[in-house]
């Protein structure tokens, strides 16, 4: 049996202090996605800004990350913290929440398994995904946990559609009057700053118009699909508050 299999088959010790602190930190610092604040039937799904969790793991000379790795691995079998922070932070967090943190030793060896490749599909395993004979639900568990850590950056593109389960970094939304037509339902929204590439760094934290109906092909928009919901972000310029 190789070393990866040897240690990954042991239950993840979530009761240990550093792991427990990490789970508590994520659960208490998540932001909530706001899609329709007036519809109580639409859940506000939590997401963890990856820059915030990365700061948590990096601070004090990577003390928390090193402590987590010390609880996951025996001496001599750990991984270098920099290998995780350089492009596998979201993957590592997802693995921890899925109870499979030790598999980070395999993930960091392949570009096909890094943060840029998220989200993974449970129906189409990515290249180089480790084999887990003792855990046939490995990929499904990973996919279920990945959403809070793979929030997309919103950019100026003509049209972009996301997976139904994808969480958008919209943290504030309020209906406003003054639509240009009977079908124009306008909103003020706030996008979590580190995911907002619709505007410049100087213009961050400014709210935008969000029509609730399909805009024309000439508009700069981002499209997100949801059950019973289809929203399009339209870049019309900054609204002064």
Task: Write out key terms for the chains shown.
alpha+beta; 2 domains; three-stranded antiparallel beta sheet; two-stranded antiparallel ribbon; 7 helices; 9 strands; 28% helix; globular; disordered C terminus
Write the topology of this structure.
Elements: H1 3-8, H2 17-29, E1 31-32, E2 46-47, H3 50-72, H4 81-85, H5 89-97, H6 104-107, H7 138-145, E3 154-155, E4 170-176, E5 186-191, E6 196-197, E7 208-209, E8 221-226, E9 229-234
Parallel strand pairs: 3-6
Antiparallel strand pairs: 1-2, 4-5, 5-7, 8-9
Quick rundown:
With about 240 residues, the chain is an alpha+beta fold.
Notes on the protein architecture:
The protein is of the alpha+beta class and 241 residues long. It has 2 domains: 147 residues, no CATH class; 81 residues, no CATH class. The chain is built from 7 helices and 9 strands; from the N terminus they run H-H-E-E-H-H-H-H-H-E-E-E-E-E-E-E. The strands form 4 sheets. The chain has a 3-stranded antiparallel β-sheet, with no helix packed on it. The longest helix is centred in the first third of the chain and has 23 residues. The radius of gyration is 20 Å and the shape is globular. The C terminus is likely disordered.
